[in-house]
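Open question from group meeting: does this chain pack into something compact, or does most of it stay loose? Before anyone orders reagents, we agreed to write out a predicted structure and look at it together. Recording both the input and the output here so the notebook holds the full record.
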Amino acid sequence: MITNKFPNKITNKLELNEALNAGSHAWPGGYPLVLVMADNEVLCWDCFRQEYSLIAQTLPPREVILDPQWTPSFIEVNWENNSLHCGNCDALIECAYPFEEEEEKEKEN
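Structure tokens returned:
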């Protein structure tokens, strides 16, 4: 069950499905979530949805892992990382609390 306590470990397909169905933002709070993979890369929610079959095949029950880089570890909130990019599509991932200095620099540019 996906809760408001993070990180939430993903150890089986049921937990993976619950995470996907819970949506891209935590409740309560609306904080942006990312899927952290076993190799410590992160996926944005769009890539999580698009690559679901590759991710799901790495979880039990399985006969063989075809591509271990798709093994999920946990769901986490991106609290303050303004420069976090998806490891698959390179999209910038929203953060819950952007640093004010970086916001001011963006406004100046």
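Observations to bring back to the group:
Helices lie at 13-22, 45-50, 52-56, 100-108.
The chain has one domain: 8-108.
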